[in-house]
Amino acid sequence: MTRYDRQTRLPEIGAEGQARLRASRVLVVGAGGLGSTVLPLLAGAGVGTLRVIDPDEVEESNLHRQILYRMSDLGRAKAEAAAEALTALNRECHVAPLVASLDPVLAAREIAQADLVVDGADTIAVTYALSDLCHAARIPLISASVLARSGYAGGFCGGAPSYRSIFPDLPETMPSCAGGGVMGPAVATLGALQAQMALAVLLGHEPSPLGLLLSVDLQSWRLSSFRFDTAPEPDTAAPRIVARGEIGPDDIVIELRDPREAPDLPVPHAQRMSPEDVARFEPGPDRRVVFVCATGLRAWRAARRLAARTSTPVAILAAGR
């Protein structure tokens, strides 16, 4: 009896499907809460190559939901600790960790080598950057988000509409897990849905999860879904997400964090501004303005507001915490 006996017994998988999984290359961005469930399920199913990218280290406050890790992993890079655990789970799966923050330049290089991308990042700018790049390359993207006891998972790009087709703009406020709290089983539920969607795409199962959004509310015990196969793309994919290396000397770079949050400027010619200063700012139409914050949320809001009242080109940089 082989490792994959129970799943190859399914007529929609069989030996041919297992061979497809073995030949697949999946890029997983984020080895945190969602990644901790997605990664072992993909490795266990026999996906041949997993590229795992995450910039963070394992912290004790992660462990109630990131059950891929142990107390002995505290202080270790998540990508490297995850790779070790996954290799111990299935030595037939090649796991390639990268300890790095994902920006559009790195993302483009990594996506070009992947058959499918799983978005487990906790930075909204990364999600939009992944969607933009996957949509252009026609690579499937499985993205999810979870907070408290609810969240969603969806299949985007790869011939389906992009993330921007459903979420063209951001809400004024977006709590984080660190600030708003989250329950481990809710995270695992959404991560498991991501893994199932990813495997369905790799195996070519129908109906495809691409063009589908699943919502899970474990407070009211409600599950819902809708298809968005024909959703139109927004007229303009603004603001553009940029990498630090894409910022030029002619760009006006505005750091929205104060010195306590970000002691060092992202580039030497950056300037700090408060929201009040940004509201009065008149840069003119000839130079691009790049707004900077940790996750991209504040920068997104500032960029959209400036673009709404001027013809100035805008972009955002998520510099990380």
UniProtKB/TrEMBL annotation:
Pfam families: ThiF. One of its GO terms (molecular function) is nucleotidyltransferase activity. Residues 247-309 form the Rhodanese domain. PROSITE patterns: RHODANESE_3 (PS50206). This is HesA/MoeB/ThiF family protein. InterPro entries: Rhodanese-like_dom, Rhodanese-like_dom_sf, ThiF/MoeB/HesA, ThiF_NAD_FAD-bd, Ubiquitin-activating_enz. GO terms for cellular component: cytosol. It comes from the Bacteria. SUPFAM superfamilies: Activating enzymes of the ubiquitin-like proteins (SSF69572), Rhodanese/Cell cycle control phosphatase (SSF52821).
